[in-house]
Structures are given as structure tokens and as C-alpha cells.
């Protein structure tokens, strides 16, 4: 991948990522792409870059990416698969909620990537990155396919990790839609309320406000009783009107 990069909006701008400039074409410009995917293909090769919003897999973090990899292997009709490397990545600066990122490098033998379906199975090299977004119950899956890997794998891996580290989530409401069929909005609200209830400083401030309200209300009641016993109802009405700038009409003499 070229080092000349530019920031590209994804999913309507809710996510951005820095991609190689002028090398990857947006597949949605010439064919339909599912709402939960952004798909790009290299302009001069068969390499592809896919980012998907998926429902959170109910599996331990260290096994979730393998589950996605095995599912892809089945979809590709692969006869032979192997995992070359697995690593946990550092947290991504542009994601400001709880998350974890994992990377897997693997190879699969699949016929679907051959131009001639009668030829031998070809080797597909994949780099997959899974970003687990805990607070919105979502798996963000990035898959880079290399049907005919030419450059060293280490260089490809470094380029993919560079793209992953550039990801920024700018609008979390993306995950509150039906794109990945989860209850993210409900979960987020619950977590926010739980966080507030555990903030002892905030709880103390609320307690002080409630105490002040009770004291002031008691004082108001005492003052009201004191003056209401002295003044007649007509006098109370007159003084109240004066406070807001009105003058009560004088009662004509009989």
C-alpha cells in the first residue's frame, strides 16, 4: 500500500479512516453493498478492503476473531485454512469508549478467487482486525484480502495496522440503528446511569442540593405563616399585586 494517505468518511461520516489515496475504489459506486459494510477494491489488483458492523459475538475476546475467520472460511468454500499469526493491538486513539482490538493473519485455499473455476485452488492471504465495542454491543470487523500476495506480508500487516490506528468514531448513534440488530441505545443509557450513581462526588452534590431545598422550603413556610396571620387577605392580595407592578383598584366609598 502506498504511504500517500487521505482521511475517508465511512458510513455517512460516522466513522473515518485514513486510506491509501487513489488506490482503492468504492465498490458502492458500481454495485450495491449491504448497509453494514464499506467495501473497497484496489484499482490495479484484486486486493480488497472491507469494514463491517456486526452483532457482538458471544465469545471470549481471544476466540471471537477466530470465529469470524472460520465463518469466512466456510463462506469462501475453503479446503485448507491456517492461522499464521494472532496479536492483540493497542487501543485505538480515535475510539473514546471501551474497546479492544485483535489482529489475525491467515491463509485459505479457495477456488472462488480463480478466474478459471476448473483450475487448482489458489491461496488467499487475509489480514483481519476485530474491534470489540463493548458499550454498544458491536463487533467492528476489518478484512483485507490478498488473492495474489506479491509484497512481503510484514509490510502489508504494518500498512493495515496503520489504517486501523487511524480509525475515528465521530457519531456513536450509528450503532443505535438496526444496522447490526443490537440494543446499543438501551445499554448505553443504562451504563451512563450506572456510572452517575457510582460517582460519590456527584451524589454528595445532589444531597447538598436536596438539603438546601428542604431548609429553604421550611423557612418559606415559617415566613408565610408569620405574615399571613398578621395581614388580611385583602392586604396580602394588594402587596402581591404591588410586587409585580400592579395597583389594586380602590373601592369607592359608599
Automatic annotation (TrEMBL):
GO terms for biological process: protein import into nucleus. One of its GO terms (cellular component) is nucleus. Keywords: Protein transport, Transport. It comes from the Eukaryota. GO terms for molecular function: guanyl-nucleotide exchange factor activity; small GTPase binding. This is Putative ran guanine nucleotide release factor. InterPro entries: Mog1, Mog1/PsbP_a/b/a-sand. Belongs to the MOG1 family.
